[in-house]
Amino acid sequence: MALDAGDTFGRYELVSWLGRGGMAETWHAQLVGAAGVTKSVLIKKVLPEYADDEAFISMFISEARISATLSHGNVAQVFDFGQVEGEYFLAMEFVDGKPLDKVLKRAMKSGMPALPVPVAVFIAMEMCRGLHYAHSRTDSSGKPLGIVHRDISPDNVLVSYEGQVKIVDFGIAKAQLQRGFKTAPGVVKGKYLFFSPEQARGEDVDARTDVWATGVVLYELLCGKLPVDGPPHVVMMKIAHGEIPSLSQVRPDLPEALNRIVLQALHPDPARRFATSHAFGDALAGFLYANHPRFSSLSLAHLLRVLFRGDLLNEGRELAVPEDFLEELKAWRQPVGQDQMPTVPHLRALPTPRPHTAPVVVTRESQEEDAPALPTAEISPVRRSWAPWVGLAALLALGGGVWWTQFRSGPEAPVGGTAPETPQDPKPPVVAEVDAGVLVDPSPPPPPPPPPDNGWTEAKVRALLDDVYRMHKSSKELPRAAKLVQTCVDALPDNADCRLAAGITYEKLRSIDKSALHYRAFLEHAPATDLRRTAVSERLAALPTRKPQEQTPANEADLESARSAVLMYLARGQLKEALDAASQCVTRLPREPECHLLRGDVLAKLGQVAESARSYERFLAFAPADHPRRPSVLRKLAELGATGAKE
C-alpha cells in the first residue's frame, strides 16, 4: 500500500520517509499512547514485491526473533513485529543521527583525510561491545545462541547526535534459534568487501568473522579507504589469501600500536585473530584511554553536530557545540602527513614563535618486543592551518623519521640553539596561518649568531638525525644509532636537537641513566618557547618507572592489560567492573605494587576507606624506595586517615 507522512500504519503514525533499501523501506514514526504520550520509532517495512518471497520473509522474521532478544546500549533494540494489511514490518529504536558510512563521507568532504584517530577507535570499541553482547547471548537454559551478525559494515552502524553507537540489522545473523534457517553450504551473504577469509571461502563462520569485519570498518575509518577493493572475484581472492596492506603503508602517521591492533583483527587465520569482540574492544580501549584519556561520547556527538549542522538547521534544530571543540576540529581537518612535509633542502630556519596556548600532549604506546615505543608530543606547525587539539592531540608513533619530520615542520632550534635569519630573505617575523586569518608576531627576531666553525652545518645535523630516527625502526640498529648520535653530541654539546635524539635513543636501549642525562641537557639548552619541553619533562619524570624490574614478559603483559581495563572501566563509570579488574591483577601478581595501587585507587572512589588504605599499604610494602608514586600514595593514606577519623 502507498504511504505518506501523516498516515497511520497499524498502531503508528508516520512522521517522515527515511529511505529504501534492496528489500525494505524505512520510516520515522511515532507510537501514540494514552494522554498524548508518544515514542519515536523506526518502521522497517518489507517492500510489496518481496511480500511473497518466502526466503526473504523467513530471514526478516529471523531478524525480528533475534533482535527482539537483544537489549544493549550498542545495539538498536526491536520493540515490535507484525503485519499490516499483509505487509511485514519491524518497529525498532529510532536513532537520532546518521549511518556511519555517511559520517565518514561527510568528514572527508569537509576536509579530513579520514576520521580522527580517537573518533575511529572509539566507534570501533563501541561496536565491539555491542557485538560481544550478541555473541555471548544464551537461551533461558544457559545454552549459547551462537549469534553472528555476518553483515557488519558502516551502513549497519548508526551514530547519534548524542554520541551513541548502535549496530542494526541482524537480519542475516546465524543463530540456533532460527529453527533450522541456515545458509546453504558454499553460499555467502552480506557485503563481500567486508567478508572474512573463511566467509569468502563459503565456510562456516563464528564470532571471529564479526571481529574481522569490525577490523575492516576501523581500517576504512582510519585510512579513508578499504584495505581491499575491486570486483568481487578479485576481492574474494585477496581476502581468502590474507593480502591486507598494513595501515602504515596507507597512512604512515598512525601509531604503530594501533597498526598492530588492527592487523591482529585482520589476521587471515581466525585462530590468530582476537578470540572475541570483547578482547578486540579491550585492546582498543587500552590504546584510546592511554593516549586520549579525555575522549568520550560527547566528543563524537560534537563532531556529528558540526558535520551535519546544515541538515539539522534544515530541520529547524541547532545543537550546541563548545568553542574548544571547534579548535580540535581545525586540527582534525588538516593533519600533517608525510607527503605534506617539506624535505630538508626546502627548510629555512625560523625565528622562535610566541608560545602557543595549547598544551603539549604526551601519548603512550604499548611496549614492543625488542624495545618499547615511546611517548611523544604533537606539535602545532607554525606554517600550517593546524590548531592544537586542546588535550586530544593526533598520535604519531615515536621513533623513525615521522617524529623527527614532525618536529622539523614546527619551530626549529638550529645549530647553536638560536635561530639565524637568512640575510637574503628579508621577510617579516614568524607568520602563523590560522583558519580565521593571519597572526603576525611583532617581536623582532634575535640577532643571527656567527656560523659554526667546526664543519657541522644545520643541513649536516638534520641529515644525521634523519639517519638516527630511521634506525629506531629496528632494534638491531639501535646501537649504531647511539654511536651516530653521540658524534653529534660530542661535536655540538649545546645543540638541543642532538640531545633530544640521544635521550630517545638511549631510552629505547633501556640505558635510563644516559637517557636522563641527555633529556636534562635538552631542557637546559632548548629555548623556553620550544613546544617540546613539556613532553620531554614528562618523559624525564617517567624514566624511573622504565628501569628493569623483576618481572617476566608475561607479568608485564598482565599488568598492562589490567591497567587498560581499570582505566577503561573508570572512564565509563563502571566502578564495580574496575574493582574486579584490579582485584584480578592482585590475584595474578600478588607482589606487583602497581596492582595494589590500582585496587587502592578504585576502592577509594567507592568510598571503602579501610580497604583502600590496606591496598595502599601493600603498595608501599612492595614498591622500591625510589618508586615515583610513593609520595602521592603517602599523601592519599594521610587523606584517608583524616577521612576515617571524621567518620
UniProtKB/TrEMBL annotation:
Residues 437-456 are annotated as: Disordered. Residues 12-295 form the Protein kinase domain. This is Serine/threonine protein kinase. It comes from Corallococcus interemptor. ATP binds at residue 45. It comes from the Bacteria. CDD domains: STKc_PknB_like. Residues 442-453 have a biased composition (Pro residues). The lineage of its organism: Bacteria, Pseudomonadati, Myxococcota, Myxococcia, Myxococcales.
